[in-house]
Design goal:
With about 230 residues, this protein is α+β, with helices and mostly antiparallel strands. It has one domain: Roll (Nuclear Transport Factor 2, Chain: A). About 30% of the residues lie in helices and about 30% in strands. The chain has six helices and nine strands. The protein has helices at about 70-80, 85-90, 105-125, 185-195, 195-200, 205-225, and strands spanning about 5-10, 15-20, 25-30, 90-100, 105, 130-140, 145-155, 160-170, 175-185. A six-stranded mixed beta sheet has the order 5-4-9-8-7-6.
C-alpha cells in the first residue's frame, strides 16, 4: 500500500511536492507528474530524506510498483491538482458515469465537461485559493479508492471551502475509469460554501435536488458554448 499526500507547487504548476510512505518509511519527493506519461516502468524513484529538492531537481516518481489502475488514479489527481481538465477527461472511458451530491453524469463528454467547467472557473477566479491533496490510492483489477481534499473559493458566495471526499471507482480492462462516485458531507460543504443559508437548508433533500438542477443547467450551458 502506498500513500501519497500531494500539493500543487505555487512556484511551478508542473511540479508537485509530496510525502511518499511505503513500508513505514516516509520521505519527501518532488514529482514530475505522471500525468504526462513519461515514467520509465522499471526505475526506482528518487527520494530526499529531509528537504524538498530545488525546482531544477524535478524528477519522476516511477510507477513500477503500481498497477495500471493505480497509475490512472495518480494521473487523474495529479492533473486535477494542476487544473488540467484535458488529462482528467482522458482518464475516463467513453461511456463512463460520475456521481456526487451535486452531479449525476453519463459519458465522457458530460464528465469531462464538468471537470473543464470547474477547472476553468478556478483558473479564472480563485487560482490563489486552490489546493488539492490526495492519499490512500489503491486499486485492483476492477475497483479503486482515493481520499482527496479540495481547498477552493466557491464562486457563488465567494467563500473558502475545504471539502473532504472519498472516491470509489471501477475500471475498464484498459485501465480507464468506468464509474466514479464521490461521497462527502453535503451539509458540511453547504455550511462552508453558503454560510447561514447552507446551515439552515443544507440538510434538506429538496435543497440538494435544487442544487443538482442548477448544476445541470450550468453544465448544459457550458457544453453548448464549448462543444
Amino acid at each position: 500500500m502506498y500513500q501519497i499526500f500531494l500539493v500543487a507547487s505555487q512556484r511551478a504548476p508542473s511540479a508537485f511536492t509530496a510525502s511518499f510512505s511505503a513500508n513505514g518509511v516516509t520521505k519527501l519527493i518532488l514529482i514530475w507528474p505522471i500525468i504526462h506519461g513519461g515514467c520509465r516502468p522499471n526505475a526506482e524513484p528518487a527520494v530526499f530524506d529531509s528537504t524538498v529538492p530545488t525546482l531544477k531537481q524535478v524528477i519522476c516518481i516511477y510507477a513500477s510498483t503500481m498497477n495500471h489502475n493505480e497509475q490512472t488514479l495518480i494521473r487523474f489527481y495529479s492533473a486535477f491538482a494542476a487544473l488540467d481538465a484535458d488529462t482528467m477527461a482522458n482518464c475516463y472511458a467513453d461511456d463512463a458515469t460520475f456521481e456526487d451530491p451535486a452531479f449525476s453524469l453519463k459519458g465522457r463528454r458530460e464528465v469531462g465537461g464538468m471537470w473543464h467547467m470547474l477547472c476553468d472557473a478556478t483558473k479564472s477566479k480563485g487560482r490563489d485559493d486552490w489546493r488539492l491533496e490526495f492519499r490512500d490510492i489503491h486499486a485492483d483489477d476492477t475497483t479503486g479508492h482515493a481520499h482527496w481534499e479540495a481547498h477552493y473559493r466557491f464562486r457563488v458566495a465567494k467563500r473558502v471551502v475545504h471539502n473532504i471526499i472519498e472516491a470509489e471507482f471501477t475500471f475498464t480492462p484498459e485501465g480507464l475509469i468506468a464509474t466514479h462516485k464521490d461521497t462527502f458531507d453535503f451539509w458540511r460543504w453547504s455550511r462552508q460554501a453558503m454560510g447561514l443559508s447552507g446551515l439552515i437548508l443544507g440538510w434538506i433533500p429538496f435543497f440538494r435536488r435544487q442544487m443538482r438542477k442548477q448544476t445541470r443547467v450550468a453544465l448544459t450551458k457550458y457544453l453548448a458554448k464549448n462543444p
